[in-house]
Design brief:
By secondary structure, this protein is mostly beta strands. It has helices at residues 161-166, 380-388, 525-530, and strands at residues 31-32, 34-35, 110-111, 169-183, 221-236, 241-254, 275-286, 290-298, 300-301, 320-330, 333-343, 367-376, 393-409, 414-432, 435-448, 460-475, 480-489, 509-510, 536-549, 555-567, 575-586, 596-608, 624-634.
């Protein structure tokens, strides 16, 4: 059988693994070249980056839904891989910035269909506000505010004080409630790794029976609901300085887990960790020079193979980085350089002799990470004008991420790791009329001199490759979208189910590329059972048709996609499964979508092929089904 669960801990130095989950999926646009850090509004009105707004105007700086500013969409590549010395060490998973409206001018180099549909709809209509590829000009500033915005010392009875406050503070975010029904996710197999989806009460026979006398409890169906509220405030300190944050309340909290029967103090069970601070960062506009950013921010590049900001309403995970970053415009290009605090190792937690203010007691166990990137993108207004004339638009970006670690903290002291990993990443997008083609290719190349904690000298070489291609054609006045896409992740013959790990043999070459979990291609196999696409080929074809649509592009649509998965390496049968996913959606869950309600019902069925069969004779995998409903809103 093809299902082995092995991966090298040292791979954390090369791959990004989100730590926090969020969940759900749909076909949603993926941003192009590289995404803005979080904290930007999810809906974008007329306000756009330098090219669109005029400095000093209040557009997009108000709290209202209709005039909200578009999100900082794409930077030329953000810091990526999982920080941390050991493999599997994941970067914080959270959700990213708010988004811009689909009605805004197309963002040539950022928004593109992302994870869920390798060939899904693109975010061409979004105009991310902090696109690093967009030249910094004095023409406009997304964070600019009206001249009177700085002072709001008017008395409370002054009818204009609310407008002045709204020009200083933006508040955006989203609400999401998801209902899940998973049928036979264990695929009928008794052994791991899929048996973890068998109900905890499976085959139990409580007194009186489970559903009737002598009946045992079933173990094939799981039903539950989750909830999340996301808030992304942005404070305009001055025209050139803004502070951004991202908060998640009840992030994927299972409904009923902390509920109370009565509102009596002795019966209340307050939810622990109900509010999580995901990101806090500041942006400084240096007129005539460029831009400086600092803090914990979201990161995205291209189609999200390595880095994804996780800002779509149904996203499960995101890349967050602690960094200091500078951006400098150079003609039609934007250059970007960043230094990331990827991992500090032992920071003296729990050591009473240390001062109250924490510090890093040793730089030897730190993971040092840097990023260099260059991007070419047109301003949204110019891109729209060229597309209207029938011109062909070609945009792209490239980034190189490097990380190094000498020592790694272990249970007793430190272990010599001697790790160096480089991640080159390239993104290209071509658009002409209603056609879009988008490609991203990334690789992890490096070496870990000792991947063990015992100092056994177990060397691991990293040679990993990931590629994603998306093709889309829009017809019938954009009411019909046909898409075809594929994802390739190099493999080593192991399925690598998320959460299970085993060290590879000494001297091995780690070749399994793991794609970011928020690059979604299906509803069941890769999203839920495995956790992310890795070590496999995935082909996806389908489309969406809008049954009803208003002037802003919002409406009711149906989606249908077929997904074929095959292992990229390994002995035995490599065919993994065929999946059909269908949905009925009102609105869009994309980060750059129109603010308002999002309602969806999705159904998926996975037909396992021989590559997923169990090892025992006659132990064939059985079909699995998923039914999901999403009640959400973006504001």
């Amino acid at each position: 059988m093809w299902l082995a669960c092995a991966w090298a801990p040292a791979l954390a130095l090369a791959q990004e693994a989100p730590v926090e989950g969020h969940g759900g999926q749909t076909e949603r646009p993926v941003r192009g070249e590289d995404v803005e850090e979080e904290g930007e509004p999810p809906n974008g009105g007329a306000e756009a980056d330098p090219p669109e707004a005029s400095e000093g105007s209040g557009d997009g700086l108000r709290l209202s839904i209709d005039d909200a500013a578009p999100p900082d969409a794409i930077d030329a590549g953000v810091g990526a891989s999982d920080p941390g010395p050991a493999a599997g060490e994941a970067t914080a998973v959270s959700r990213g910035e708010p988004r811009a409206r689909p009605g805004a001018p197309a963002d040539p180099g950022t928004d593109t269909p992302r994870g869920d549909a390798p060939a899904g709809a693109s975010r061409e209509d979004a105009a991310p506000e902090d696109d690093p590829t967009r030249p910094v000009s004095s023409e406009a500033d997304p964070d600019a505010r009206p001249p009177d915005a700085a002072s709001s010392d008017a008395p409370e009875d002054d009818p204009g004080w609310r407008d002045r406050l709204r020009s200083v503070i933006d508040l955006h975010g989203d609400f999401r409630l998801r209902l899940e029904r998973w049928q036979r996710f264990h695929l009928g197999l008794e052994d791991g790794p899929f048996d973890r989806f068998r109900a905890a009460t499976a085959d139990e026979a409580p007194a009186g029976g489970c559903g009737g006398e002598r009946e045992t409890c079933g173990g094939s169906t799981l039903r539950f609901a989750t909830l999340r509220l996301r808030l992304a405030p942005r404070i305009h300190v001055t025209d050139d300085i803004s502070v951004h944050a991202l908060f998640d309340a009840f992030d994927d909290r299972v409904l009923g887990a902390d509920a109370d029967d009565l509102s009596l103090p002795e019966t209340q069970r307050a939810a622990r960790g109900a509010v999580a601070v995901r990101r806090v960062w500041a942006r400084f506009r240096l007129r005539g020079v460029g831009e400086l950013r600092a803090g914990r921010m979201g990161a995205r590049f291209g189609l999200g193979l390595v880095q994804d900001d996780g800002m779509d309403l149904d996203d499960d995970a995101s890349t967050d980085v602690d960094r200091i970053e500078a951006r400098v415009p150079l003609g039609p290009l934007v250059l970007r350089g960043a230094w990331d605090f990827a991992a500090r190792g032992d920071v003296g937690a729990g050591r009473a002799e240390l001062p109250r203010v924490p510090f890093d007691p040793s730089p030897e166990d730190d993971v040092r990470q840097w990023t260099l990137a260059v991007a070419h993108r047109l301003a949204p207004a110019e891109a729209e004008a060229r597309l209207a004339r029938g011109d062909v638009l070609l945009e792209g970006a490239a980034q190189l991420l490097g990380r190094r670690q000498h020592l790694a903290p272990v249970e007793e002291g430190w272990a010599r790791r001697g790790a160096r990993v480089y991640t080159p990443d390239v993104w290209l997008r071509l658009r002409w009329r209603g056609f879009r083609a988008e490609l991203e290719a990334a690789a992890h190349v490096g070496r870990v001199e000792d991947a063990t904690d015992e100092g056994r000298g177990q060397r691991v070489d990293l040679r990993q490759l990931g590629v994603a291609l998306q093709l889309e054609q829009r017809l019938l006045d954009d009411r019909l979208r046909l898409d075809l896409g594929g994802v390739y992740a190099s493999g080593d013959g192991a399925l690598g189910v998320a959460g299970e790990a085993e060290l590879q043999d000494a001297g091995a070459t780690a070749s399994r590329f793991a794609i970011h979990p928020s690059h979604r291609v299906d509803e069941i196999l890769w999203r839920r059972l495995v956790g992310r696409v890795q070590g496999a080929w995935v082909l996806r074809a389908g489309g969406r048709y809008d049954l009803l649509r208003d002037a802003r592009g919002r409406g009711l649509g149906v989606t249908l996609h077929g997904v074929y998965s095959r292992a990229s390496a390994g002995p035995g049968d490599r065919d993994l499964g065929l999946e059909v996913d269908a949905g009925l959606e009102y609105g869009t869950e994309a980060a750059d979508g129109e603010p308002g309600a999002y309602l969806a019902v999705r159904y998926g069925v996975l037909v396992p092929l021989a590559g997923l069969d169990g090892e025992g004779e006659g132990e064939g995998a059985k079909p699995a089904q998923a039914l999901r409903a999403i009640i959400g809103a973006r504001f």
